[in-house]
Design a protein that fits this description.
The chain has 295 residues and is an alpha/beta fold. α4 (226-238) crosses α5 (244-258). The strands form four sheets. A six-stranded mixed sheet has the order 4-3-5-9-10-13, with helices on one face. Strands 6-7-8 form a three-stranded antiparallel sheet. Strands 1-2 form a two-stranded antiparallel sheet. It has five helices and 13 strands. β6 and β7 form a beta hairpin. 20% of the residues lie in helices and 19% in strands. One of its GO terms (molecular function) is cysteine-type endopeptidase activity. Belongs to the peptidase C14A family.
Length: 295
Protein backbone atom coordinates (compact mmCIF):
# COMPACT_ATOMS: atom_id res chain seq x y z
CA UNK A 1 0.00 0.00 0.00
CA UNK A 2 1.26 3.48 -0.84
CA UNK A 3 2.60 5.16 2.27
CA UNK A 4 0.46 8.22 1.63
CA UNK A 5 -2.79 6.26 1.35
CA UNK A 6 -3.58 6.09 5.04
CA UNK A 7 -2.23 6.90 8.49
CA UNK A 8 -3.10 6.28 12.11
CA UNK A 9 -3.66 8.84 14.84
CA UNK A 10 -0.08 8.29 16.01
CA UNK A 11 1.50 8.80 12.58
CA UNK A 12 2.92 12.12 11.52
CA UNK A 13 0.73 13.69 8.87
CA UNK A 14 2.38 13.39 5.45
CA UNK A 15 3.20 16.38 3.32
CA UNK A 16 0.89 17.03 0.41
CA UNK A 17 2.46 16.28 -2.95
CA UNK A 18 1.78 18.99 -5.51
CA UNK A 19 2.74 19.05 -9.14
CA UNK A 20 4.55 22.29 -9.99
CA UNK A 21 5.73 22.93 -13.57
CA UNK A 22 6.09 19.23 -14.18
CA UNK A 23 8.03 18.47 -11.01
CA UNK A 24 6.89 17.11 -7.66
CA UNK A 25 7.40 19.38 -4.70
CA UNK A 26 6.60 18.80 -1.03
CA UNK A 27 4.62 21.62 0.49
CA UNK A 28 3.17 21.71 3.97
CA UNK A 29 -0.59 22.42 4.12
CA UNK A 30 -1.26 26.13 4.60
CA UNK A 31 2.22 27.16 3.47
CA UNK A 32 2.71 30.90 2.86
CA UNK A 33 2.87 30.32 -0.90
CA UNK A 34 -0.80 29.32 -0.90
CA UNK A 35 -3.05 32.31 -1.69
CA UNK A 36 -6.01 32.84 0.62
CA UNK A 37 -8.14 34.69 -1.93
CA UNK A 38 -9.35 33.88 -5.40
CA UNK A 39 -7.55 35.89 -8.06
CA UNK A 40 -9.96 38.70 -8.90
CA UNK A 41 -7.42 40.71 -10.86
CA UNK A 42 -8.66 39.67 -14.28
CA UNK A 43 -9.91 42.30 -16.73
CA UNK A 44 -13.59 41.34 -16.27
CA UNK A 45 -15.61 40.42 -13.20
CA UNK A 46 -17.59 37.85 -15.17
CA UNK A 47 -21.08 37.03 -16.39
CA UNK A 48 -24.03 36.96 -13.99
CA UNK A 49 -27.29 35.55 -15.28
CA UNK A 50 -30.70 36.05 -13.66
CA UNK A 51 -33.41 33.49 -14.42
CA UNK A 52 -36.65 35.15 -13.36
CA UNK A 53 -39.64 32.84 -13.68
CA UNK A 54 -42.93 34.58 -12.92
CA UNK A 55 -45.56 32.90 -15.11
CA UNK A 56 -45.99 29.15 -15.45
CA UNK A 57 -47.87 26.83 -17.77
CA UNK A 58 -51.15 25.58 -16.34
CA UNK A 59 -49.86 22.01 -16.54
CA UNK A 60 -47.27 22.72 -13.82
CA UNK A 61 -49.91 23.67 -11.25
CA UNK A 62 -47.76 26.63 -10.18
CA UNK A 63 -49.16 30.10 -9.47
CA UNK A 64 -47.82 33.41 -10.75
CA UNK A 65 -44.93 34.66 -8.59
CA UNK A 66 -45.95 38.24 -7.88
CA UNK A 67 -43.07 40.37 -6.59
CA UNK A 68 -40.35 38.44 -8.40
CA UNK A 69 -39.71 41.28 -10.87
CA UNK A 70 -38.70 43.47 -7.93
CA UNK A 71 -36.19 40.81 -6.88
CA UNK A 72 -34.80 40.61 -10.41
CA UNK A 73 -34.42 44.37 -10.73
CA UNK A 74 -32.63 44.65 -7.40
CA UNK A 75 -30.27 41.81 -8.24
CA UNK A 76 -29.55 43.30 -11.65
CA UNK A 77 -28.59 46.62 -10.08
CA UNK A 78 -26.50 45.15 -7.28
CA UNK A 79 -24.43 42.79 -9.41
CA UNK A 80 -23.91 45.43 -12.09
CA UNK A 81 -22.52 47.65 -9.34
CA UNK A 82 -20.12 44.83 -8.40
CA UNK A 83 -18.80 44.82 -11.96
CA UNK A 84 -20.64 41.84 -13.47
CA UNK A 85 -22.04 41.67 -16.97
CA UNK A 86 -25.64 40.93 -15.98
CA UNK A 87 -27.98 39.08 -18.34
CA UNK A 88 -31.61 38.70 -17.31
CA UNK A 89 -33.97 36.07 -18.70
CA UNK A 90 -37.69 36.16 -17.86
CA UNK A 91 -40.05 33.15 -17.96
CA UNK A 92 -37.59 30.51 -19.11
CA UNK A 93 -38.46 26.98 -20.29
CA UNK A 94 -36.59 23.83 -19.22
CA UNK A 95 -34.78 23.62 -22.56
CA UNK A 96 -33.73 27.25 -22.34
CA UNK A 97 -32.57 26.96 -18.71
CA UNK A 98 -30.25 24.04 -19.44
CA UNK A 99 -29.19 25.61 -22.73
CA UNK A 100 -28.09 28.77 -20.93
CA UNK A 101 -25.73 26.76 -18.75
CA UNK A 102 -24.23 24.88 -21.68
CA UNK A 103 -23.73 28.22 -23.45
CA UNK A 104 -21.98 29.64 -20.37
CA UNK A 105 -19.75 26.54 -20.17
CA UNK A 106 -18.69 27.00 -23.79
CA UNK A 107 -17.61 30.64 -23.36
CA UNK A 108 -14.02 31.72 -22.86
CA UNK A 109 -13.81 32.94 -19.25
CA UNK A 110 -10.03 33.37 -19.33
CA UNK A 111 -10.29 37.11 -18.62
CA UNK A 112 -13.01 36.82 -15.97
CA UNK A 113 -12.86 36.48 -12.18
CA UNK A 114 -15.86 34.20 -11.76
CA UNK A 115 -19.40 33.31 -12.84
CA UNK A 116 -22.66 34.00 -11.02
CA UNK A 117 -26.29 32.96 -11.38
CA UNK A 118 -29.53 33.79 -9.60
CA UNK A 119 -32.60 31.57 -10.02
CA UNK A 120 -35.95 33.03 -8.98
CA UNK A 121 -38.74 30.48 -9.22
CA UNK A 122 -40.92 27.93 -7.52
CA UNK A 123 -39.15 24.81 -6.38
CA UNK A 124 -38.79 21.66 -4.33
CA UNK A 125 -35.69 20.40 -2.57
CA UNK A 126 -33.01 19.93 -5.22
CA UNK A 127 -35.23 21.15 -8.04
CA UNK A 128 -36.55 24.41 -9.49
CA UNK A 129 -39.42 25.11 -11.85
CA UNK A 130 -39.04 26.31 -15.41
CA UNK A 131 -42.17 27.73 -16.97
CA UNK A 132 -43.08 24.33 -18.42
CA UNK A 133 -41.95 21.91 -15.73
CA UNK A 134 -39.51 21.05 -12.96
CA UNK A 135 -35.76 20.72 -13.41
CA UNK A 136 -33.04 19.27 -11.13
CA UNK A 137 -30.51 21.90 -10.07
CA UNK A 138 -27.78 19.29 -10.52
CA UNK A 139 -28.65 19.03 -14.21
CA UNK A 140 -28.25 22.79 -14.63
CA UNK A 141 -24.91 22.88 -12.84
CA UNK A 142 -23.43 19.85 -14.61
CA UNK A 143 -22.01 21.74 -17.65
CA UNK A 144 -19.91 23.95 -15.35
CA UNK A 145 -18.14 21.10 -13.57
CA UNK A 146 -14.61 19.90 -14.18
CA UNK A 147 -13.28 19.85 -17.71
CA UNK A 148 -16.62 20.76 -19.29
CA UNK A 149 -15.82 24.45 -18.73
CA UNK A 150 -12.01 24.61 -18.68
CA UNK A 151 -11.68 28.40 -18.36
CA UNK A 152 -13.80 28.36 -15.17
CA UNK A 153 -11.67 25.70 -13.45
CA UNK A 154 -10.33 27.10 -10.18
CA UNK A 155 -12.71 30.07 -10.34
CA UNK A 156 -15.83 30.62 -8.20
CA UNK A 157 -19.20 29.53 -9.58
CA UNK A 158 -21.79 31.35 -7.44
CA UNK A 159 -25.47 30.40 -7.32
CA UNK A 160 -28.23 32.26 -5.45
CA UNK A 161 -31.51 30.36 -5.46
CA UNK A 162 -34.80 31.93 -4.38
CA UNK A 163 -37.28 29.05 -4.36
CA UNK A 164 -39.20 26.87 -1.97
CA UNK A 165 -37.55 23.58 -0.98
CA UNK A 166 -40.69 22.03 0.49
CA UNK A 167 -43.88 22.97 2.29
CA UNK A 168 -42.76 22.92 5.94
CA UNK A 169 -43.15 26.11 7.94
CA UNK A 170 -40.69 27.28 10.59
CA UNK A 171 -42.61 28.63 13.61
CA UNK A 172 -39.41 29.70 15.34
CA UNK A 173 -38.28 29.54 18.96
CA UNK A 174 -37.92 32.30 21.52
CA UNK A 175 -34.43 33.51 22.39
CA UNK A 176 -33.28 35.64 25.31
CA UNK A 177 -29.92 37.14 24.49
CA UNK A 178 -27.35 39.70 25.57
CA UNK A 179 -25.51 41.67 22.91
CA UNK A 180 -21.74 42.14 23.15
CA UNK A 181 -19.55 43.91 20.59
CA UNK A 182 -17.27 41.82 18.37
CA UNK A 183 -14.01 43.01 16.78
CA UNK A 184 -14.06 43.73 13.08
CA UNK A 185 -12.48 40.97 11.06
CA UNK A 186 -9.89 42.04 8.52
CA UNK A 187 -8.27 39.75 6.02
CA UNK A 188 -5.14 40.71 4.09
CA UNK A 189 -4.64 39.41 0.58
CA UNK A 190 -1.93 36.79 0.27
CA UNK A 191 0.68 36.91 -2.46
CA UNK A 192 -0.52 35.20 -5.65
CA UNK A 193 1.40 32.21 -7.03
CA UNK A 194 0.87 30.14 -10.15
CA UNK A 195 0.85 26.35 -9.89
CA UNK A 196 -0.48 23.46 -11.94
CA UNK A 197 -2.48 20.93 -9.99
CA UNK A 198 -5.45 18.61 -10.08
CA UNK A 199 -8.66 19.95 -8.50
CA UNK A 200 -11.90 18.19 -7.52
CA UNK A 201 -14.61 18.60 -10.16
CA UNK A 202 -17.03 19.71 -7.43
CA UNK A 203 -14.69 22.42 -6.07
CA UNK A 204 -15.24 26.19 -6.22
CA UNK A 205 -19.05 26.11 -6.22
CA UNK A 206 -21.26 28.10 -3.86
CA UNK A 207 -24.99 27.49 -3.49
CA UNK A 208 -26.94 29.97 -1.41
CA UNK A 209 -30.56 28.93 -0.94
CA UNK A 210 -33.32 31.17 0.37
CA UNK A 211 -34.36 28.47 2.83
CA UNK A 212 -33.28 25.11 4.25
CA UNK A 213 -34.26 21.72 2.77
CA UNK A 214 -37.93 20.86 3.10
CA UNK A 215 -39.10 24.37 3.95
CA UNK A 216 -41.24 27.10 2.41
CA UNK A 217 -39.61 30.31 1.16
CA UNK A 218 -41.45 33.58 1.73
CA UNK A 219 -42.05 36.28 -0.89
CA UNK A 220 -43.98 39.53 -0.58
CA UNK A 221 -46.05 40.60 -3.58
CA UNK A 222 -44.98 44.24 -3.26
CA UNK A 223 -41.51 44.06 -1.70
CA UNK A 224 -40.12 40.84 -3.15
CA UNK A 225 -38.72 37.85 -1.31
CA UNK A 226 -37.16 38.08 2.16
CA UNK A 227 -33.94 36.47 1.00
CA UNK A 228 -33.33 38.71 -2.03
CA UNK A 229 -34.23 41.83 -0.02
CA UNK A 230 -31.64 40.93 2.60
CA UNK A 231 -29.01 39.88 0.05
CA UNK A 232 -29.29 43.15 -1.85
CA UNK A 233 -29.14 45.24 1.35
CA UNK A 234 -25.91 43.51 2.39
CA UNK A 235 -24.36 43.73 -1.07
CA UNK A 236 -25.14 47.45 -1.25
CA UNK A 237 -23.59 48.15 2.15
CA UNK A 238 -20.66 45.74 2.17
CA UNK A 239 -20.21 44.39 -1.37
CA UNK A 240 -16.81 45.94 -2.09
CA UNK A 241 -15.14 45.39 1.27
CA UNK A 242 -16.44 42.25 2.99
CA UNK A 243 -15.71 38.62 2.15
CA UNK A 244 -18.66 36.86 0.50
CA UNK A 245 -19.31 34.20 3.16
CA UNK A 246 -19.19 36.89 5.83
CA UNK A 247 -21.81 38.81 3.84
CA UNK A 248 -23.99 35.74 3.58
CA UNK A 249 -23.86 35.32 7.35
CA UNK A 250 -25.23 38.88 7.58
CA UNK A 251 -27.97 37.86 5.14
CA UNK A 252 -28.86 34.87 7.30
CA UNK A 253 -29.13 37.08 10.37
CA UNK A 254 -31.32 39.69 8.66
CA UNK A 255 -33.75 37.07 7.35
CA UNK A 256 -33.81 35.19 10.66
CA UNK A 257 -34.19 38.20 12.95
CA UNK A 258 -35.95 40.90 10.92
CA UNK A 259 -38.61 39.00 8.97
CA UNK A 260 -41.75 37.22 10.13
CA UNK A 261 -44.84 36.25 8.17
CA UNK A 262 -48.03 38.25 8.67
CA UNK A 263 -51.04 36.57 7.10
CA UNK A 264 -54.77 36.26 7.72
CA UNK A 265 -54.40 32.52 8.26
CA UNK A 266 -53.37 31.23 11.68
CA UNK A 267 -51.51 28.31 10.07
CA UNK A 268 -49.09 30.58 8.17
CA UNK A 269 -48.98 33.62 10.46
CA UNK A 270 -45.92 34.40 12.56
CA UNK A 271 -43.53 31.97 10.83
CA UNK A 272 -39.81 32.43 10.28
CA UNK A 273 -37.18 31.52 7.68
CA UNK A 274 -33.43 30.91 7.52
CA UNK A 275 -31.36 30.78 4.30
CA UNK A 276 -28.86 27.99 3.72
CA UNK A 277 -25.31 28.33 2.41
CA UNK A 278 -23.58 25.31 0.87
CA UNK A 279 -19.98 26.16 0.05
CA UNK A 280 -17.36 24.23 -1.87
CA UNK A 281 -15.24 27.36 -2.20
CA UNK A 282 -11.54 26.87 -1.58
CA UNK A 283 -10.55 30.51 -1.09
CA UNK A 284 -12.05 33.81 0.00
CA UNK A 285 -14.20 35.88 -2.40
CA UNK A 286 -13.79 39.67 -2.44
CA UNK A 287 -15.54 41.90 -4.99
CA UNK A 288 -13.05 44.75 -4.74
CA UNK A 289 -13.54 47.52 -7.34
CA UNK A 290 -11.71 47.07 -10.61
CA UNK A 291 -8.90 49.53 -11.23
CA UNK A 292 -9.54 51.96 -14.04
CA UNK A 293 -7.64 51.23 -17.25
CA UNK A 294 -6.04 54.64 -17.86
CA UNK A 295 -4.14 54.91 -21.13
Amino acid sequence: MDKFSMHTDNDELPYILRRVTGERKSVKPGAPSEPNEYNFNYKNRGIFIIINNKHFDESTGQETREGTDIDAERLEERFQDLGFEVRRYDDVTRTKMTGLMYDIASYDHSNSDCFGCAILSHGRDGKVYATDGILPIELMVLPLKGSRSPTLVGKPKLFFIQACRGTNLDYGVELVESITPSPQDETDAAAQTVTIRKLPAEADFLFTYSTVPGYYSWRNNQDGSWFIQALCIVLENHGFKMELLHMLTHVNRIVAYEFESCTDKEFTDGTKQIPSVVSMLTRYVYFRPKKQDIR
